[in-house]
Amino acid sequence: MLFRVGERSIALDKYDRDAEFSFVSHAHSDHTQGLRKSSTALMSEQTAGLLAARGKNVYTMVPPKSTAMINAGHILGSKQLYMEFDELGTDAIYSGDYQMQQSFAAERIEIKRAETLIIDSTYPYPNIEFDDRDDVAYAMQRYVRNKTSSGAAVVFGTYTMGKAQEIVRIMNDIGIVPTVDPKVARINEVYGEFGIHMRYSTVGDESQENGDSDPVLIMSNSGLTACAMKVSEERKVRVYTAMASGFAKIYRFNTDVQFPLSDHADFKQAVEYVGCCQPKQIFTVGGNSETMAKNLRAEGYRASVLESGSTISLASHIKAASE
Ligand SMILES: [Zn+2]
User: Does the 2-127+264-322 domain belong in CATH 3.90.230.10?
Assistant: First the structure.
């Protein structure tokens, strides 16, 4: 999305050659649109490392004057962008994907005050509330212990970047060393380079081939069914399928069990975040931006949808907001 302020234009989570600079909040593919192998954009070194593991050797730039990246708490290296507009006498923050709870595999969120907030809208509904992440992790551990102690195997299908690493660490916490698919292993290696260490084996490794690894597997969502069938055939054990996602609060998935482990903020967390940021105006972005803006207005905030490419004058908006 192109964010224009006065003479300036900044591309947020969408690479744009014509922008003054492009900011990539984190390495999930829906936030790296337009990035090519040789693109240069503002991002954390962790994001660059994760993108390189996916075959994109992008270049990071030194943060331009009057900007700063602060932790978003979503996945390894996820950042928010703080922008100061000296010429307009105001400032803004772009949240990207973020969460208020502590991830099992990412830095804790930092919150900074700004007059304008551009906020993600993934979960805009007040009736969807995420549980405490520690409680969800405990439920996952208990389920896995229960099934594996009776001789069964558990296969998790999940996002290969961010969520998979959290599940590995949740399993490591109870002494289980899961087997992961090579896509997950490549991302795990980058996490390890940045100090987030995990114990796991990779499909195809000798220990896995010998069948002496722990009976918990972590796969990409697309590989779940095939993996469950293979494990059942080779090990001759009952296999339970599991998934972990915030969408478990909304949808019923075709697995034996689902855990609502989200790396996003729910609406309650969004309101908490906004309360700490104390913006005078809010712009919402993403698929549910209309609903998010409406529900933030119901909380008493001045919120509207940010249309990509439109020029906004921060100073006049804020003047209007305070009248
Ligand atoms: Zn994301």
Answer: no
Residue ranges per domain, the chain? 2-127+264-322, 133-259
Q: What is the pLDDT of residue 212?
A: 59
For range 266-293, the mean pLDDT: 95
Q: Cα(29) to centroid of ligand 1, in Å?
A: 8
Asked whether residue 38 carries a pLDDT value surpassing 80, the answer given is: no
Say if residue 71 is exposed, middle or buried (CB neighbours under 10 Å; 0-12, 13-18, 19+).
middle
Are 130 and 269 contacting, i.e. CB atoms less than 8 angstroms apart? yes
Q: What would the pLDDT profile of 175-219 be if each residue is shown by its tens digit?
A: 999 999 999 999 999 999 999 999 999 988 765 555 557 899 999
Backbone φ and ψ of 153, nearest 5°: -115, 155
Ligand 1: distance of its center to the CA of 100 in Å?
14
- Ligand 1 center from residue 228 Cα (angstroms): 27
What is the 28 CA–ligand 1 centroid distance (Å)?
A: 5
CATH code for the structural domain at 133-259: 3.40.50.12650
How far apart are the CA of 97 and the centre of ligand 1, in A? Answer: 5
